[in-house]
Specification:
Distance between the termini: 79 Å
Structural class: alpha/beta
Number of domains: 2
Number of helices: 10
Strand content: 5-15%
Order of helices and strands: HHHHHHEHEHEHEEH
Strand order of the largest sheet: 3-2-1-4-5
Largest sheet: 5 strands, mixed
């Protein structure tokens, strides 16, 4: 009796974790989509579909685990264990290639975890899942073909209904000649608006993440350029937790360059693109050029800014 209660509790708990994981990655789903582009298994066209199918599988597996409340279906337990192992290997690859930085995205932006923290979480879940493999195999409600069909259809429709496909995508690494969408920064309901109209005139606009190490290097360089040429208008549009702002400012030695925050919902990635930092040369909200911080030259910026015919 105790074994049945323990097994049922574990199975339902695992199911809830998978359902929560799928749901939290839905908003914003773009970050999850970008992860498939970053590891080069998808492009801008296929990533939205792959991301939603992946979340649909998480929904489906979560429901199966909850219906497996007797904990006696080994196939469900093996599938769950296999998926957790795959997640863990992916996170290990991230640590090796990119370091243990930032949010791994396992629970979207709701619960921020580093890749290493997520690996520890997965190990705990794998340990719980292994318990189910030692129980006698049996049948459960989802062996009913009609119910199973409803679960499959419902699970795979859910991500597409809750977060429909969007045909637009952020600018690519070298994309220019597009117009920034900055109206959200001046919305009536927004408490803090930029003191200048970023939609008018020439200026360098840098889209930066507060936790991105490359963004910090780029910001430090832009600050030095601003000290050399104070007349060059530079503006920072930041994304991240405001609690990280103080450290960001101190590390980059930012003093008198204006900035504002922009959320993903307001269009941060839609304007900046996936690759940060995004340093844009902007005239009347139109991106005329973008520069990698490693190639950024103060003289080139000033020549562009002073060119009245450009």
């Amino acid at each position: 009796m105790i074994k049945n209660i323990l097994a049922g509790s574990i199975s339902v708990l695992l199911g809830i974790v998978f359902l929560f994981s799928a749901y939290t990655k839905l908003y914003p789903i773009e970050l999850f989509e970008f992860s498939f582009i970053e590891i080069k298994v998808a492009n801008w066209t296929t990533a939205p579909y792959i991301a939603r199918f992946f979340l649909a599988f998480e929904f489906f597996l979560g429901l199966l685990l909850i219906l497996n409340f007797k904990g006696n279906n080994r196939l469900v337990a093996k599938t769950t264990l296999g998926l957790l192992i795959a997640f863990t290997l992916y996170l290990l690859a991230i640590i090796i290639l990119q370091g243990n930085n930032g949010n791994c995205g396992c629970f979207g932006t709701y619960i921020k975890m580093t890749p290493l923290e997520s690996i520890i979480k997965n190990i705990v879940l794998m340990g719980l899942c292994a318990v189910l493999l030692f129980l006698p195999e049996g049948k459960n409600y989802f062996t009913n073909k009609t119910l199973l069909g409803v679960l499959i259809i419902g699970s795979f429709m859910t991500p597409f209904i809750l977060n429909p496909l969007n045909e637009t995508h952020p600018p690519d690494t070298n994309e220019i000649n597009y117009t920034l969408k900055l109206d959200a920064l001046y919305a009536n309901e927004r408490l803090e608006k930029p003191k200048v109209d970023l939609r008018q005139g020439k200026r360098v606009i840098a889209f930066l993440s507060l936790t991105c190490p490359h963004c910090k290097i780029a910001t430090h360089k832009l600050n030095l350029i601003h000290e050399q040429y104070p007349e060059l208008p530079i503006y920072y549009i930041l994304n991240g937790d405001s609690a990280d702002l103080k450290n960001f400012m101190e590390e980059t030695k930012t003093r008198d360059i204006a900035y504002c925050f922009m959320s993903l919902k307001e269009g941060f990635v839609d304007n900046a693109g996936l690759n940060l930092p995004s340093i844009l040369w902007v005239k009347d909200a139109k991106v005329e050029n973008r520069t990698k911080y490693t190639e950024l030259e103060a003289d080139d910026l000033m020549k562009w800014y002073r060119d009245t015919n450009h």
